[in-house]
Amino acid sequence: MSRGAWLVSRLLQMVPTFLLIGLAVFVLARLLPGNAVMALLGDRGSDEAVARLTRQLGLDQSIGMQLLAFLESVLRGQFGTSLAFRIPVTRLIAERLPVTLMLTGMAIVIALALALPLAFVAALKVNRWPDLLIRGVFQVGLSSPIFYVGLVLLTVFAAWLRIFPVGGYGDTFAEHIYHLFLPAVTLAFSLSAIVMRNLRASILSVIRAEYVDFARAKGLRSRVVLLRHVLRNALIATVTLVGLHIGSLLGGAVITETVFAVPGVGRLMVDSIFARDYPVIQALTLVLAVLVSLAFLVTDLVQMWLDPRVGR
Amino acid sequence: MDNGSSVGRRFVLGGGVGLATLATMGMPTAARAAAVRGGRMVYARYADSLFLDPVLSDANVDIWVMNSIYDTLLMPTPEGIGVQEGLATKWVLGDGGKALTLTLREGVKFSDGTPLKASDVKWSLDRARNPKNGAWNEMIASIDAVEITDPSTVVLKLKHPDPTLLPALAMFNTGILPQAAFAAAPGATEDEKAKAFAEKPIGTGPFMLTEWQRGQRMLLKRNPHYWKKAPDGQPLPYLDELEFAIIPDDATRILKLKAGEIHGTEFVPYSRVKELQADKNLRMELWPSTRVAYLTLYVRDKLKNGQDNPLSNVKVRQALNYAVNKDAVIAITTLGLGKPLQSFMSSSTPLSRKDGPVYRYDPAKAKALLAEAGFANGLELSCIALAGNQDEMNNLTTVQQMWAQIGVRLKIELLDNPTRTARYRAEDFQMRTAAWTDDIADPSEITSYFAYYPNIHALHSGWEEKRVNELFLQSQQEVDPAKRQAQYAELQKIYVDAAPILFLYETPYPVAFRGNAKGFVQIPLGNNYFEAAYVEK
């Protein structure tokens, strides 16, 4: 199978996945007790007000009709109108999605920038003090809850030292990076620990492999051996790991976005669930599912490049 | 608006802000220290607004800020008890209390520059009282017709004399909108037009909304046509720009305030008030409020699931009230910032009973009452509460321990907000945590929900007292203030004795500002006033 055909088949495989996810979230959202009318009107509205809003929001229609309307709106590339904000869902998500993507992207870059060199140092100095120190520090990162790490970073770097802003997103691209730096570090914390430990372990196993001994025996310089033979092979497992963690990064963004007042889709998702804002919940779940699937696809592509045996 | 939901946890009460601030608010004639013109104030809110239509919206996140954009004919006084001039400069009751003649202020313009006309007033009031519109039309249901007698005079013809009409004309839902701009908004139906209009609202208020990134921030600019003048004779507001930053996390809002990234924040948690009071760079403000915290007690003989309900016995309800040490609950949940209740309504609500705290802590009496009711060996009760709300949990666990002393075992069931509301409306609960703030400077609103059965079965408790219903209906048409006061005194006494709620406490609104950010006012109804706010350089 050619690379192109493989790609097309992978993309086609995603379609039924999305259909199933869409259907599941449609049903699950409606299984939650209470609905958007209860969330919007609260304790106050009269029975007539409840009936009127239920009709206005289309929640008086049968589940089947609602599902048809949902599917139709998805096929037209729209997702209806938010029940809570009363503006198109696409507009709401378009405003927020870039923020979360940038936050997650920065978190991955920071996690790798920390983990890659330190994993090397730890592996090359295995069981000596640099290794123990690096592992010890990352163990703390691995076992600290995200909201706590966030608050500590905020207190130290934003409130005391005033190096970074406490929260928000800013207006220009440079401001975005500046505002998202602390939240991205927070989000990167546990990922970098996982990547570091994993990469260190793979380096240790690769470094003892025969082909590495052979490369050395050929007289290659040790830097070339490390980069071309050790790192490339050790990275294969790491790439898979990072790919698999994109989903949990997006999940972690929910907490990070709340602590740092970052207006991304994570916070929107939580708000929408509490508001029983079905159209937003459905649309966001689908969008996140597409993102995670694409991340897996990219992971596979990178793996193929690292290890030509994959995908043959 | 009831805010026992996600809002509740962030409220507080107690001391007060200097009277000087109160007196200057909205009163251009009062002297004030030199205010600074221009600049931007950033104020952090815990949640964004949803829908800025005064008639169709119903959440505090909308209600509390709409007065920055829309004006009403009358306005609440800062202490929240009376009314003062708004878009109307004179109001005269005639025809035996069945006609209210309002003289409109000269020269008022909307923020789009068009003049305010009597027809805008008539159209806005007709829209607000249309029974098909929103949750608030009942508040002005006594209006029979709105008539324009000359370009600056509007007469409200009433079905019956209505003592609540004046405060109702100062309530957000009677805000005046420009009819032409509303009609010109895109959309085929009224609802669509309302949605479009509320995105770029136009009013006569001090500010106009110019940018809105939902969930992130709102930017308001000063309305160059605003009619109100500062004491120096120059137009208000002082600020060029007012930004609402949306920051849901309590700790983050406070960090940003301390770092100087924002000028002020609402809803400082009780636990942080003392710390902010001690910070020399900040000013902690505790505004008197109408917020009350309580538990609703379901009083019908059988619960929704068919079980016998001990709370149907008034002695049990009284025993539960006597068994709770309100001062201890206040100390634990509000760190001493609350005050025990003297009625079901706050002490800031007009005509509220002020005979001292109800049900003073008396565990012996509580035990005796339980024994009289046939529960000498104790009983088990359950209460639904909002998950994640620290204040409600503190209240409930404290109450739980106190009740254990008289043999009452309390089961706590945590729910999220829509679930809790659905259970409440279905009257499927035994006890329920809740909080309330008034929207109108009159006792009628809270009474219609808490005590008058036909509205919502007295908070869905099922409690009904014919005499209370009578008193309420009479008071709704009683224009003699002394008689109305007597009716409310009797009504509140009956209510307190019957105890269809567990009386807890009232709390102030806790807001904090940087030392150089001044002039903000929050009235007991919760509305935020920024017209006289300014930031010193």
Automatic annotation (TrEMBL), chain A:
Its main location: membrane. One of its GO terms (biological process) is transmembrane transport. It comes from Limobrevibacterium gyesilva. Residues 97-299 form the ABC transmembrane type-1 domain. Belongs to the binding-protein-dependent transport system permease family. The keyword Magnesium does not apply. SUPFAM superfamilies: MetI-like (SSF161098). It comes from the Bacteria. The keyword Transferase does not apply. It is found in: Cell membrane. It is a multi-pass membrane protein. The chain crosses the membrane at residues 12-32, 101-124, 145-164, 176-195, 230-260, 280-302. This is ABC transporter permease. GO terms for cellular component: plasma membrane. Keywords: Cell membrane, Membrane, Transmembrane, Transmembrane helix, Transport.
UniProtKB/TrEMBL annotation, chain B:
This is ABC transporter substrate-binding protein. The lineage of its organism: Bacteria, Pseudomonadati, Pseudomonadota, Alphaproteobacteria, Acetobacterales. One of its GO terms (molecular function) is peptide transmembrane transporter activity. It comes from the Bacteria. GO terms for cellular component: ATP-binding cassette (ABC) transporter complex; outer membrane-bounded periplasmic space. PROSITE patterns: SBP_BACTERIAL_5, TAT. CDD domains: PBP2_NikA_DppA_OppA_like. Keywords: Signal. The keyword Lipoprotein does not apply. The keyword Ribosomal protein does not apply. Its main location: periplasm. GO terms for biological process: peptide transport. InterPro entries: Peptide/Ni-bd, SBP_5, SBP_5_CS, SBP_5_dom, TAT_signal. Belongs to the bacterial solute-binding protein 5 family. It is found in: Periplasm. Pfam families: SBP_bac_5. Residues 83-452 form the Solute-binding protein family domain.
